[in-house]
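Input/output pair, single chain:
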Amino acid sequence: MNLLEIKNLSKTFGGLSAVRKVTAHVRRGEILGLIGPNGAGKTTLFNLISGAYLPDSGSIVFEGENVEGMADYQISQRGICRTYQIVKPFNNLTVLENVLVGAFNKTESGKAAKEISLDLLNFVGLYGKRDLVASRLTLAGKKCLELARALATQPKLILLDEVMAGLNPKEQSDAINLILEINRKGISLLVIEHKMKIIMSISKRIIVLHYGEKIAEGSPQEVSRHPEVIEAYLGGKDAVA
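Output:
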């Protein structure tokens, strides 16, 4: 059984079809890439899966349970968590307090929540900054904080929205290693990323959206050779060597 199954999912805003009859699945323990030009519907799909938006039609099944229509906190409690392209830490809270917010999603024990949070801050490399106010972190630090807060909810699936955006090459390399380490813990990831070399290197499968529709799905090699993908997204300067 797949971890997540999406069938004929659609969402329209004022007559514009942001997502149109998309069918896809995420396997247990895999990293699935999601690519497409700006406005292709990628973030809308994330918002539908995470409960921020209600679909107009279609189904979202997570571990055999229909979750479309559930509130976002209910979906999070079932094991789906997401990060954002524009980082959204609680800037007036400390780094540790930010992660505690996520930890309390699964435990009511303050002691247990603190132990979970400190362990995760060590994992993402922010333990030494645990008492720092989150607003003082660098962009890379804030992205690591978002990952730690997501992990604190004890997810089975993380939706990563352009975690590499704004990072320098060294920070990108560190982020890739962190993503792979998260995956080695058995957590599945659905990843939106515009940097083709990165998404091709970490994903076993890739789905391509264009104007809200899925136009291709397959291995990185298959997708990079797909005529519609080349036309819609990978042509010219963005082509994959």
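The first helix runs from residue 42 to 50. Strands lie at 4-13, 16-26, 31-35, 57-62, 65-66, 80-82, 157-161, 188-192, 205-210, 213-218.
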